[in-house]
Amino acid sequence: MRVIVTRPQREAQRWVLDLSAQGLQAVALPLIEVGPVDDTADVVRAWQHLGDYVGVMFVSGNAVDYFFKSNSALAPVSIGSIATKTRAWATGPGTARALLRQGVAPERLDAPPVDASQLDSEALWQVVGPQEQPGDRVLIVRGGDCLGSALARSDAAQGAGRDWFANRVMQAGGRPEFVMAYQRGAPEFGSQERELAQQAATDGSVWLFSSTQAVVNLSTCLPGQSWAGARAVATHPRIAAA
Description:
Elements: E1 2-5, H1 9-21, E2 25-28, E3 33-36, H2 41-48, E4 55-58, H3 61-69, H4 75-84, E5 87-90, H5 93-101, E6 109-110, H6 121-128, E7 137-145, H7 149-158, H8 160-171, E8 175-185, H9 191-200, E9 206-209, H10 212-221, E10 231-234, H11 237-241
C-alpha cells in the first residue's frame, strides 16, 4: 500500500522514514510550505518577556524552530529563563522533540502522553489545565497564512485547536496571547508532483492528512480533479470534516 505524506518537507521526510520502517511504501508530497514571517519584531518582543508567562504553547515543530531562529542571538539567556520560570507546552511528540533540540529542559516540558488517544490541544489541556491560575499569562506561538483566498478559507479550521485552547485559558481566568512565528503557504506543483498527485487520486493510494490546510491546498493545486475514488486518513476529526 502506498501512503502519500502531505506534511511540510522537513517533517514529511521523518514520517516517510517511520512509515517505511513499518513496511509501508511511503512517498512525500508536501502540501504546505513554511517560511519566516516578514517582520520578527513581535517574536523578539515575546522572547524578551518569556519570564512573564506561566506557559508557552507551541502549535507545531515549525512554531518552535522559527520562534527560536528569530531569536538566535538571545537564545543562551532566554533558554535559561524557560528552564527556571516558564513551562513549554507541546501538543505532540514532534513538537516536544523540537523543543528538546532547542535546549528546553525535559523537566520543564509538558505534552500529552505519547500513547494518548488524540494528540491535540484538547489532550494538552488535560495535562496543563490544572496548572492554570487566575491572572496567569499564556503565550501561544503559531503560524499564519500567506495571502490567498484558499488559504484564508482554511484559517478558521486551521486555528480551531489553538482558539479552543485559548478559550480554556480564559475560562480558567488566564490571559492568552498570540504571536506568529512563521508563515504557511501552498506549494507550486511541478510536472512530477502533479503527476504523482493525479495518480494517487485514483490508484488506491492512501493520503495522510494532518492539517486542514493541506486538504485545501491540494484542491487549489489540482482544480477540477475528481477525488471521488481517493482514499485518505486524517489525524483529527476537524481535518476529516474538511
